[in-house]
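User:
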Amino acid sequence: MSGTCPQWSRGDRAMAAAKLMAGWVALLWLLEVIDVAAGHALDEYGIVPRIPSELADILPAAFLHFGFAHVAANSVPLLVLGFLAALGGIRRFLAVCALIVVADGLGVWLISPAHTNTAGASGLIFGLFGYLVVSGFVERRPLGVLVGVLVAAVWGGSILAGLAPTQSGISWQGHLIGLAAGVTAAFLLRRRPAEPREPVP
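Assistant: Predicted structure:
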């Protein structure tokens, strides 16, 4: 039996993206509440470089923060950039995030200074920034190009500042690797011209 599968409407995509990112950011806050209540016991799941057992912390480190000010600083850019990226399809967005988080975590593990502990969503944020700025050009989508230009105009200054190695207490290595991973994801996971929008499950 043949049939057709209904497609996401613009409203469906926007609602799904908004719910996903609202839940994502809420999870970051919940984890920080738990961390504070536990006497910062979750901080040990950050990434300490070049210790083999720390490779298991690559994923959890992207969801953990060192205090409420840290998670607050990451919440708005993650919410907005994640929403914009997720409008292109949830499965594709999750693949982009997985690539960024894994590449960023491995990079931090390899090149960060010894005896440091790195955690937070900023590597993912830098990656989503790079992805959004580049993907429209890679896929030759005028709307994507416009989004990329607007994202660069709004966040470009803070992104450049976050790459400066002179800032203490900031993992510029994680920022730089996240940015590079996001640009790479734009090429590796680009939508082909004939590729349809993902259907409603």
